Amino acid sequence: MKFNDNFLWGGATAANQCEGGYNEDGRGLANVDVCPTGKDRSAVITGNLKMYDFDDDHFYPAKVAIDMYHNFRDDIKLFAEMGFKVYRMSIAWSRIFPNGDEETPNEKGLAFYDEIFNECKKYGIEPLVTICHFDCPMYLIKNYGGWRNRKMIGFYEKLCRTVFERYKGKVKYWITFNEINMILHAPFMGAGICFEEGENREKIKYQAAHHELVASAIATKIAREIDKDYKVGCMFAAGSAYPYSCNPKDVWEATKVDRESYFFIDVQARGKYPNYALKEMERKGITPVMEADDIDILRKYTVDFIAFSYYNSRCVRTDNSDDVAEGNLFASAKNPYLSYSQWGWPIDPLGLRITLNHIYDRYEKPLFIVENGLGVKDEINENGEIEDDYRIDYLREHIKAMRDAVNLDGVDLIGYTTWGPIDLVSAGSGEMEKRYGFIYVDRDNEGKGTLERRRKKSFYWYKKVIESNGSDLD
Ligand code: BG6
């Protein structure tokens, strides 16, 4: 019961949740910078509260985050100490194009990522690069309305061409958009969209989704032209939806919930809008505006692999119960067979095997689990140690489920990167104290702390897991 010798073990971060250095070396302001902590965060990330700049009443965690901008050498060294084969990270768009619509890129921004890739190479770590992890230059939001505007495709295309050319030979694996289905649930964070009073929100979201889907296909085309060895993937927030009961109404609703996410991947992996989506849009009168070539581009440039995040399964019931559970992406019905994290997210390792099988059955393309983990409040004990056995237990059970999917079900899995191998800012809540890491970072929700790094017990455990290629999970 093990993995291929070239299985890619590692961890995943996103620029806005770890880099900080929000205004250094010419970087422009981005949507992710102006998402505050506290009660307004949810209204901001969903596009219901317009926040286009900083104010004195809020704390903005992305400004400093964990200051990886200045610490990346030491942090990557720690990843190497754990034996990482791959490091998933993202490029901050506004470091490369501070406004987003410039003719020429910001050399200092490009040079920063050169250094990161050089550092990875030093340790034999393969970078896996997300081109857009929720970020969008603020200038493009203020002046073009974010992804609701078709012009975004051109700006994104320029970003892709620039990084594909610049990092040729240094990077092999690319992901076009992080959790592309997030656009439906957090449109400001997912696509730089703020709503005006009385707008048809569904229509705007699906139009923006169309723009991102076409942009992703164009990126795939350009990547292949620039380097035939490039591997381009899509990425979505996964977690199969279970019907709460065998009542066919529950089963049908659960199918619809799954399709809401599969819709994106159906386009990116199969190359066309699925019929169920076309019909649904037609019924709602929200058919996206398309240009003549769009259908052809989507058909020709499908992805090489499918990446996804898995934190939890979902549960769907139709009897109007208000017994709900939180979770990545959105809340769903509470599943009585599962336990729950401190943030109320279901814990369902078998759900990972189920999800892997559902996705593989549907697409038959290589899969990559690029996020998985448990967000927890960690305590430092009197000896200065963090004994995070709960994290080890969570990961162990998920790795076992993944091992079963590979060995018993024949799922083709390229790799596994846990979310936040080093503690970082939570995307959903903006908190620092929702920790996922093997490495503790001394910083709290108010931005206090020394930023010192400290290895947790799970650090040594994950090192052993990687060393044994997933056979020693004790
Ligand atoms: C995914 C995102 O939604 O889940 C990450 O791709 C995010 O950016 C992760 O951090 C965990 O969610 P949270 O809200 O606990 O940070």
TrEMBL record:
Its EC number is 3.2.1.86. The keyword Repeat does not apply. The active site is at E371. The keyword Flavoprotein does not apply. GO terms for molecular function: 6-phospho-beta-glucosidase activity. PROSITE patterns: GLYCOSYL_HYDROL_F1_1 (PS00572), GLYCOSYL_HYDROL_F1_2 (PS00653). InterPro entries: GH, GH_1_N_CS, Glyco_hydro_1, Glyco_hydro_1_AS. It comes from the Bacteria. Pfam families: Glyco_hydro_1. SUPFAM superfamilies: (Trans)glycosidases. Keywords: Glycosidase, Hydrolase. NCBIfam families: PRK09593.1, PRK09852.1. Belongs to the glycosyl hydrolase 1 family. PANTHER family: 6-PHOSPHO-BETA-GLUCOSIDASE (PTHR10353:SF296), GLYCOSYL HYDROLASE (PTHR10353). This is 6-phospho-beta-glucosidase. It comes from Clostridium saudiense. The lineage of its organism: Bacteria, Bacillati, Bacillota, Clostridia, Eubacteriales.
